[in-house]
Give the backbone structure.
Amino acid sequence: MTPRHPSDLRRFGYLGPRGTFTQMALDAWDGARHQEQVPFGSVDAALEALRSAEIDAAMVPIENSVEGGVSATLDALATGDPLVVIGEVLVPVTFVLCARAGMPLSSVRSVGTHSHAWAQVRTWMATHLPDAVYVPTLSTAASAAALGQPGDVMFDAGVCAPVAAANEGLEILAEDIGDNRSAVTRFVLVARPGTLPEPTGADKTTVVLFQRDDHAGGLLELLEQFAVRGVNMTRLESRPTGEAMGSYCFSIDFEGHLQDARVGETLMGLKRVCADVRFLGSYPRADGVRADARVGTADTDFDTARSWLEQLRS
Amino acid sequence: MTPRHPSDLRRFGYLGPRGTFTQMALDAWDGARHQEQVPFGSVDAALEALRSAEIDAAMVPIENSVEGGVSATLDALATGDPLVVIGEVLVPVTFVLCARAGMPLSSVRSVGTHSHAWAQVRTWMATHLPDAVYVPTLSTAASAAALGQPGDVMFDAGVCAPVAAANEGLEILAEDIGDNRSAVTRFVLVARPGTLPEPTGADKTTVVLFQRDDHAGGLLELLEQFAVRGVNMTRLESRPTGEAMGSYCFSIDFEGHLQDARVGETLMGLKRVCADVRFLGSYPRADGVRADARVGTADTDFDTARSWLEQLRS
Amino acid sequence: MTPRHPSDLRRFGYLGPRGTFTQMALDAWDGARHQEQVPFGSVDAALEALRSAEIDAAMVPIENSVEGGVSATLDALATGDPLVVIGEVLVPVTFVLCARAGMPLSSVRSVGTHSHAWAQVRTWMATHLPDAVYVPTLSTAASAAALGQPGDVMFDAGVCAPVAAANEGLEILAEDIGDNRSAVTRFVLVARPGTLPEPTGADKTTVVLFQRDDHAGGLLELLEQFAVRGVNMTRLESRPTGEAMGSYCFSIDFEGHLQDARVGETLMGLKRVCADVRFLGSYPRADGVRADARVGTADTDFDTARSWLEQLRS
Amino acid sequence: MTPRHPSDLRRFGYLGPRGTFTQMALDAWDGARHQEQVPFGSVDAALEALRSAEIDAAMVPIENSVEGGVSATLDALATGDPLVVIGEVLVPVTFVLCARAGMPLSSVRSVGTHSHAWAQVRTWMATHLPDAVYVPTLSTAASAAALGQPGDVMFDAGVCAPVAAANEGLEILAEDIGDNRSAVTRFVLVARPGTLPEPTGADKTTVVLFQRDDHAGGLLELLEQFAVRGVNMTRLESRPTGEAMGSYCFSIDFEGHLQDARVGETLMGLKRVCADVRFLGSYPRADGVRADARVGTADTDFDTARSWLEQLRS
């Protein structure tokens, strides 16, 4: 199969509805600007549509600087038919408290939003609405949508992105109410295997590692496969494999591209010592930071070493 | 402060409402049987009540064999006034689909439950109720409670523990619908510092490690502090510190008790190389598995080595 | 250059004179039995004759179970035009005290032998000839030769191999006088590059590693290149490079053959992180012990991993 | 036993005879200047005299920047009754070729010297006296002494330190004939246990490590005991234990003093994982270079960590 270029993608799915931070991430992706954009009700639904070729790519959240890894995405990528990440987008997370016209802050008795968003505004709520009842919704945008439609609603105010409140014509009762003003969510653009972005020198690679057995020091051994080849990790999360309490796989991002020699040897090393290694893509870093290759780990160092070995063996 | 004994505890809080798996965990704790039990609406609320001495201990979920770490608990323990884990309980997780009398499975159009439970019955739902709309609730027991009360409800059926359905007098439409039949949730009993269970030989210790800086190989260095002293980890989770994308702390369980010599030296080593180490308790393992101490890491080995050193120095 | 087979060798040099343990080692080498054997006065001289193609191979001592590495050999292999080890021989070391006919033990006032041999009979001498003066000779056989020839000699008795005493027709005053009865010397057969024995499954490889700079933890890094690929070391010696006090190179034997995949990757890894790596040959182990390959380090594991990587990259 | 101060030493032994580099080392030791100085015929003899309290200290060579470790010294310190190093001296090694008056360079047919010295002038000899026969002597000074006395001698010229040639009134045929002009020999002043120099901040410690068993990765484990506590090695030599081929102990120098916290914990760690650890002294470095303590490894870091642990445990 000839690898497809990321610029060949036509239909983009995303975790909807409209007005979520995920849509903001998709809007920030150049290649998606004038293409078809399809909202899905869950990460699972978006990725299934991608697997069945209903769409060409899906934008989904993977990591939040406050709440941590997005389990649904991590798990959906770690299992099922293979998918690969082909890009990432960082979106600052800003929350507003919004309500229907005429509802003053002092009258708010209940607040609807997604549980992750609720977790990120706890401090503000404890100060300004200590007695408000929390009502979970399927997404932050869903809380705005419920208020935006006529008829009964289960809560007086919603917590969502500014764009969602604007979309629904709601009033803003308070802006920037997140407990952490520098909160950022990282989104990844996922595609089917066969789409591999070119190396840029500032790349990341994502894998999931399944340990051969759960022996002491197992993780240490895996990390040494990276360290001995000068490959730096930028994210590590353990996720249960679901088989038994204490049985984990590791979701890992690291610097470098599949085509880099040190990445190739690291992946082969992991493949040999792990029960399984799932490659989840190499893609340009959103922050453009170039890898700081340790002495002896550049492609030319690997080439020189291989020529030397071949000469010894001949 | 004289350490209090776990048997001195009188008032127990837990993540409510009644009928949750957390209450089942508390029921399984011998010392809580004939004591006062107080439900709280969130992990945060239970732990705040504990910090303010309103209760003496709180039972909260910390890790699910399918869904992974419970972020709310991990984060609430990692920050704020110090608390310590003094015991753990493992509870098998079994879900039922329940409804009001007279509602056949074929008529169910919407299902309410907690988002974590929904994630664990995805496969069953895709097979038996592919078109059902999901409605998030605050807990699994809350879905049963809503159905158990008269009046309007937002969904036709709920997903909860068998005990919750029984408490509310609901009909069981399907039993054991979890995708993973061996799912287990691990709960921890948390108290204020000053309560330290005796070492039993089959103990665990929980810590949170904050790295000094985010340098390459940083986690490897931390893990070597364990490895060089023969201490085995049983859980590792990275959690964002909230300060910036890619800034993590590590929540770690390992074998052994604060009073064990190898644990003491490991903790001191971590304290020296980390920006901060938060001790979250030593307590008997629920499974009673005794640590398999590597040669040279028993308390007597440490004593012998110390005597030898003191003799050299004198 | 087509590799020559070890069986093509015709002229064998060795560290002479006749009657040394080195000649015993050469006699134990099947391929040398009916070939020309040339003694040399020093390891340097033998290896220089090999480099200038005056001989085809040279048998020299490299390691003694009592005295350690043989510096002259280690250093001569580590520098100058490249040479390779193509085989090894283990020879038990047994010393006799010998003298001209008519000299009783009680009359011995001075003893001649090589300084290494003297070091290995210290205890016997302290007990039986506490007042004897030591006279250094160029080799153990040289002490026998001096006594075997007519005329003045600087010492009353010699310490040498039984065969040397027999060659010279000397009387044996005491047998097996070595302090360590299980002493063994390891000899290596050295040839010019281009002679590479076939892998047997029970092979050793010898290298010299020159560190890039003398930074802390440098040796640890080198050893991790072996460990991460499951390659076991059987000998490690540091040798000064002669450049400055504290500047070392490392002479290392390890299990496996140049053609083994895990050895190839280890050598390339060392080549990348070292200032220089000198390959000194792969050859069958004298003891025939087969390497105990760790899970994931067999050639087939490397092949599988490479196929997987190539598929990912295509 | 109250530790004795190095300044209490009265009788100094050294590897004689007069005129060796060892005497030059002793002359460079302030505390020995106006004290009794006793030459011994071998390192063993000097150290035995020290063990039997015949002398208070002994100056012996331990490491040469060209030839490597001095086996006799390393082995004599590693076995027998314990001794400790209390100081070190670095002496530049300069060789002269000397002869009796009237012997021109062109007439020299044979050269006497110690085998280590002969190894260090090989290049000069190959150029200027390619046909000279080598005659081993017990020391470099012994070659000068033989020429300095009337009567027959086995060689025409000697290789020794300038001071030895001057002592004997010999003529200098060539100066500074060492192949390596920056050659240095390191000498150590050895005493009985109970003499421990004060920490200076620029100290070294010497130990011998005996592995528990000869398992793969054994050395790596030992080195990790140093690395994890930020202790840098400055010398590592493997020495055969004499028990079997491939059975080694490790002679190691590292930065820091027995009284340093990180050194104490490292020594205890080694004691626990090794079959045996032999402490061979802590003493000021001859070059005065202060240890570059890694973050978290200063004494105050250890004190802070210990206080923290004790508070947790109480």
Notes: The mean pLDDT of chain A is 91. Residues 91 and 220 of chain A are 33 Å apart (CA to CA). Chain A touches chain B through 46 residues (CB under 8 Å).
